[in-house]
């Protein structure tokens, strides 16, 4: 569900026409709907309320990697969400947006000693460890800082999530977590390390999941592991179930399971665990809340289908090039006609292709299009390739809107670089 609708022949974000934003800010531009963000937070909260144990209920820790924009994070902070962070930069962004550090979980396979010190200093609630070497480093850092780090091990359950290979994280050949069979011994060693407080287990098997069965299989393994660890004397009080719920990019395909469906499965899978549950939703919160608006530069003849060349490119929206991902593409002022076209950007790569032989709204030079479901892993992965400025971002709230990240002029990009004296 989203708040991008056609009104009087024009595509709107809530009560603001996308063309009005494009006229003022230029294109390409990301536009986010505050109402959609809040709606999906409530849908997720409704799905997991009452699960697990503890007076505070489950912790919903938004995956900052999905969309780290400060205004988006501030919206989610006001809704009471925590944060799943994977870098020192994400910790700083979440703190600046008002998310309490105690509601953060620090994930990621490559935490540095400096990032560990930063997380300890602000009071991050839990470190999700990904290796025994990481546990040993954190122990040294925590002791040196005179602090205790609450930790969980991320478990690799060797479960295939059935998603794209580049966003599958729970198979034995993936880089994430420790092997399931190695977990009991790893917990024993971690419990003996000074500066660590072993409190939980964590699992995350992939992103854009469209089937709950792999998740339930992973959770079944985690439930058995919790029993084993408790039998060995470990007080396991938290279980981080990760995120990964898919969203409907291509409406012609069956819809992914809903958060409500997910909640029913989690209740069944975690019955009797007696832990506080942690969830790390990202895409399911912000995916449908964003659109990338672009202008058609020109049409060009092709062998089979004409090329629609737009001013957005793979540096602005990488997912189609990286994952062969689908984004619905709509004209902001559709004329009722359709055409089969190839939609491409201006970057000098054949991979700068958004759609091939796509039947979509017919457009002409100067028209605008919106790439839908572009709130997650979109602006977050943008770059300045081909010396193209990072795409500005706009947040809409009802009939008002604001630029929440401005387009950086090329002069500012050049000014950040320094030419050594011996080249002047």
Quick structural summary:
With 424 residues, the protein is an alpha/beta fold. Helices cover 28% and strands 25% of the residues.
**Mind telling me which CATH architecture of the largest domain this is?**
Alpha-Beta Barrel
Secondary-structure content class? alpha/beta
Helices, by number, come to: 12
Question: Span from first to last CA?
Answer: 56 Å
Mean pLDDT: 94
CATH fold naming of the largest domain: TIM Barrel
**Beta-strand fraction estimate:** 15-25%
Counting structural domains, the number is 2
- Overall helicity: 25-40%
Uncertain segments are 161-172
Q: In angstroms, what is the radius of gyration? A: 23 Å
Primary descriptors:
8-stranded parallel barrel; 28% helix; alpha/beta; single chain; 12 helices; globular; 424 residues
Structural features, described:
The chain is α/β, with parallel strands linked by helices and 424 residues long. It folds into 2 domains: 4-32 and 287-415, Lyase, Ornithine Decarboxylase, Chain A, domain 1 (Beta Barrel); 34-283, TIM Barrel. 28% of the residues lie in helices and 25% in strands. It has 12 helices and 21 strands. The protein has helices at 18-25, 34-48, 70-78, 88-96, 113-122, 132-145, 183-191, 213-231, 259-269, 283-286, 319-323, 410-415; strands spanning 4-7, 10-13, 16-17, 29-33, 59-63, 82-85, 104-106, 126-129, 149-156, 178-179, 196-202, 238-240, 276-279, 290-300, 307-310, 329-331, 338-344, 353-361, 368-371, 393-397, 400-405. Strands 4, 14, 15, 16, 17, 18, 19, 20 and 21 form a 9-stranded mixed β-sheet that branches. It has an 8-stranded parallel barrel with strand order 5-6-7-8-9-11-12-13. Strand 11, helix 8 (213-231) and strand 12 (238-240) form a beta-alpha-beta unit. The longest helix is centred in the middle third of the chain and has 19 residues, at 213-231.
């Amino acid at each position: 569900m989203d708040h991008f609708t056609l009104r009087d022949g024009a595509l709107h974000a809530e009560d603001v026409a996308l063309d009005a934003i494009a006229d003022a800010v230029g294109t390409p531009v990301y536009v986010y709907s505050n109402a959609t963000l809040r709606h999906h937070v409530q849908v997720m909260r409704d799905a997991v309320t009452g699960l697990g144990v503890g007076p505070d209920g489950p912790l919903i820790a938004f995956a900052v990697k999905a969309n780290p924009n400060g205004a988006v994070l501030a919206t989610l902070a006001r809704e009471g969400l925590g944060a799943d962070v994977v870098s020192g930069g994400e910790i700083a962004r979440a703190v600046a947006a008002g998310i309490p550090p105690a509601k953060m979980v620090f994930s990621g396979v490559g935490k540095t000693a400096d990032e560990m010190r930063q997380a300890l200093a602000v009071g991050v609630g839990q470190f999700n460890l990904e290796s025994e070497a990481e546990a040993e480093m954190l122990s040294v850092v925590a002791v040196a800082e005179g602090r205790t780090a609450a930790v969980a091990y991320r478990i690799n359950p060797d479960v295939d999530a059935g998603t794209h290979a580049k966003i599958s994280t729970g198979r034995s050949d993936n880089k994430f977590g420790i092997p399931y069979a190695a977990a009991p011994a790893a917990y024993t060693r971690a419990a003996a390390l000074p500066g660590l407080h072993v409190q939980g287990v964590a699992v995350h098997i992939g992103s854009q999941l469209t089937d709950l069965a792999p998740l339930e299989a992973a959770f079944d393994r985690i439930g058995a592991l919790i029993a084993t660890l408790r039998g060995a004397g470990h007080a396991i009080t938290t279980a981080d179930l990760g995120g990964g719920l898919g969203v409907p990019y291509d409406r012609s395909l069956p819809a992914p399971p809903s958060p409500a469906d997910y909640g029913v499965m989690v209740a069944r899978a975690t019955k009797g665990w007696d832990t506080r549950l942690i969830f790390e939703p990202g895409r399911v919160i912000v995916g449908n809340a964003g659109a990338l608006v672009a202008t058609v530069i020109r049409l060009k003849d092709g062998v089979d289908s004409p090329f629609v060349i737009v001013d957005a490119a793979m540096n602005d929206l990488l997912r189609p090039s990286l994952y062969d991902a689908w984004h619905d593409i709509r004209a902001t002022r559709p004329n009722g006609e359709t055409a089969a076209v190839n939609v491409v950007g201006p970057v000098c790569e054949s991979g700068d292709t958004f759609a091939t032989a796509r039947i979509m709204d017919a457009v002409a030079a100067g028209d605008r299009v919106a790439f839908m479901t572009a709130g997650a892993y979109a602006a977050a992965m943008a770059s300045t390739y081909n010396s193209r400025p990072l795409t500005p971002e706009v947040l809409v709230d009802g009939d008002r809107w604001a630029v929440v990240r401005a387009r950086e002029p090329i002069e500012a990009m050049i000014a950040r670089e320094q030419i050594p004296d011996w080249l002047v």
